[in-house]
Amino acid sequence: MRDRLPPLPLFRTFEAAARHLSFKQAADELCVTPAAVSQQIKALETHLGVPLFLRLTRALRLSEQGAAMLPSVQAAFGCLDEAVRRAGVVQTGGRLTVVAPPSFASHWLVPRLPAFHAAHPEIELHLASRADTVDPGGEAAVLAALDRPAGDEGCAMAIVYGAGHHAGCRVDALLAPELVPVCAPGLATAARPLRTPADLCRQVLIHSDIYGSTGRSGQPWGWPQWLQAAGVDTPVATPGRHFSDAMLAIEAALAGQGVALAARPMVAPSLAAGTLVAPFPVAIRSPYTYWLVAREDVARRPAAVAFRQWVVAQAALDAVTL
Q1: C-beta separation of 264 from 135 below 8 A
Q2: What is the C-alpha separation between 70 and 11, in angstroms, rounded?
């Protein structure tokens, strides 16, 4: 076996696009955008060094190399399905509770859930959004969220924004988001247009407390770091409006109330739809990561295994396309 195969999600995207001979239909099946499918196919073609599709004016055809590869890819996924069936993982019926930060649940997870329900209709998934899953400083609140209420026969997992230190738990990294400034399209071309990053100093800056402070120093984190990365000399304490949650900050930006610093995965649908614009390409890496956390005994249960495999694969797709 080659030491460095392309990521498995790229093969899944190729198989769907080849089966439908349509990037749009493949995108509908995978719950992503056609542009994301196109980017993933290009990434696979780049890795392999051969074209997989012939992109005609009004049609999509497999190239000679793509047609030769497709049967083996489909056979490989068939083998994986059979292996999972033999392991009994498909028998995942039951209740699964997932708690997540409000912004992650609303802007990232919910739009992707139809794909999970289609793949696992036997799982009764309960999704809850809770602010205590934003946990940069500790793990007590998260562990409390994983405790099942008395009489609940299901199991609980949490998607946590933080450092990922949770003793006694299985922890899987999902997304380490980049933060970019976003605003309503009209704001970027208003009376005080955004031509350079320095123009932000004349705008209302929207702050999200989800990013909090730097912890040890206690200094605010977010806009000061972005402005510094963009080469703007500004005081650390920049004026603006403050919101306790990233979802509220994004909604304020959509309403034209100012410029928000947002995690790119949370605003990708709005950017694609044109309801938000990113006026500058500069991005900074978030100091924390979104993690999937479950107690070790829960993480081994079939429903939890099914959700973990699915959500990790979805996050891997974002890592390729964002």
Answers
A1: no
A2: 9
Q: Tens of pLDDT along 157-194?
A: 999 888 888 877 889 999 888 899 999 988 877 767 78
Cβ(161)–Cβ(255) under 8 Å? Answer: no
Name the packing angle between helices 34-48 and 23-30 (round to 10°): 110
pLDDT at 320: 52
Residue 267 near residue 182 (C-beta atoms within 8 A): yes
Instruction: Name the region of 222 (left: φ>0; alpha: ψ -120 to 50; beta: rest).
Output: left
The residues facing 54 across adjacent strands are 61
Q: Where are the beta strands (DSSP E) in the chain?
A: 53-55, 60-62, 94-100, 123-129, 134-135, 155-162, 169-175, 178-182, 205-208, 240-243, 259-263, 284-285, 289-295
10 Å Cβ neighbour count for 160? 31
DSSP character string of 181-198:
EEB-HHHHTSSS--SSGG
DSSP state letters, 120-156? -TTEEEEEEE-GGGEESS-SHHHHHHHSPPTT--SEE
- Token pair belonging to 201: 């100093």
Strand partners, 172: 292
Q: How far apart are CA 216 and CA 146, in angstroms?
A: 27
Q: How far apart are the first and last CA of the chain?
A: 29
Alpha-carbon gap, residue 76 to 263, rounded angstroms: 35
pLDDT at res. 88: 55
The pTM (predicted TM-score) of the whole model is 0.67
Q: What is the pLDDT of residues 103-156, one digit of tens each?
A: 899 889 999 999 999 989 989 999 988 877 776 655 555 666 665 543 444 568
What are the C-alpha distances in Å from 21 to residues 15, 29, 36, 303? 10, 13, 16, 33
Using alpha carbons only, give the angle 246, 243, 141 rounded to the nearest 5 degrees.
65
**Contacts (Cβ under 8 Å, ≥6 apart) of 178:** 263, 264, 283, 284, 285, 286, 322
Rounded to the nearest 10 degrees, the angle between the axes of helix 64-87 and helix 8-20 is 120
- With beta carbons less than 8 A apart as the criterion, state whether 129 and 101 touch: yes
